[in-house]
Amino acid sequence: MKNILLTGCSRGVGLSIAKSLIASGYNVYGVSRKITPEYEQLMNENENQVFYKSFDLADPDSVQEQLFKNYITNSVPLHGFINNAAIAYDDIITNLNLDRLRNMYEVNVFSPYNITKYAIRNMIYNRVKGSIVHVSSISVHTGYKGLAMYAGSKGALEAFSKNTAREWGERGVRSNCLVAGFMDTDMSATLGDDMKDRIFKRTSLKVPTALESVADMITFLISEEAKSITGQNIHVDSGTI
Amino acid sequence: MNSAILESINEVKEGKGDEAITSVSNTTHLRDDLGLDSFDLAELTVRIEEKTGVDIFENGVVETIGEIAKQIDG
């Protein structure tokens, strides 16, 4: 059984990713701030396949201790890391608040970078050709009012992923970004209906991006079938062109 | 000499298909004498950390066996 570390596992697209991974036979090592009844149910229905650790990614200094010494030690070979957890700080640039910006970067950028460090260390210790997937956002590629700061944090992940792919490719480690379009989740709940409608109308399909479509593509990128895919940004965004 | 160092070096060498070495000294250079590249050193770091709990690269670059021993002995 292959072991996958998934952040932001307990709701939204993370929960869909967990379900997709379970259906494909992976062991899921979930991480989130708070467990939800839905994730608890997944654990109960899939004993010894679905695990959980409560951890706040706003604390990147504790990544090694909490996630790799107390949860996924080197005795658990890590085959994949899915960086899904994120927070959205949306506001126009002239209102930028540095404390809120720093907090978003701790969660969206610094913790994922640090988790990648220890995930790759686990992979090379166990001589595993692991796969890393970062969940990015269409806002990196298409501008939206109020999302400059959030999009900046996701753009940092895309650059990090491409360079991870180049750096660790010769050890068989792959890294890709799933560029998700706007989904109807708690994270976009702060956007007004008008704004959401305008966003969805900009897509080819005129509908929100389906969570299952994002989740199943991530499961594919983690899998052996995607062994020649690395350093890429894969758009699953209802055709935002 | 900490046996964890020699064991870890030989685990890395085994992974590369290289022959095991039987001894090292404090002046043995990791790159020039043992032929380890940066990826090998990354693997060596995690193997030594697993055995000793010490991340030998945490405080900067190490180049010789003696420098590794110094990190482990604190």
Automatic annotation (TrEMBL), chain A:
Entries under InterPro entries matching the protein: NAD(P)-bd_dom_sf (IPR036291), Sc_DH/Rdtase_CS (IPR020904), SDR (IPR050259), SDR_fam (IPR002347)
PROSITE patterns, sorted: ADH_SHORT
Example GO BP: monocarboxylic acid metabolic process
Stretch forming the signal peptide: none
Source organism, top-level taxon: Bacteria
Family the entry assigns: Belongs to the short-chain dehydrogenases/reductases (SDR) family.
Name of the protein in question: 3-oxoacyl-ACP reductase
Automatic annotation (TrEMBL), chain B:
Species: Nonlabens dokdonensis
Source species, domain of life: Bacteria
Domain Carrier: 1-74
Protein's name in the database: Acyl carrier protein
Organism lineage: Bacteria, Pseudomonadati, Bacteroidota, Flavobacteriia, Flavobacteriales
InterPro entries listed in its UniProt record: ACP-like_sf (IPR036736), PP-bd_ACP (IPR009081)
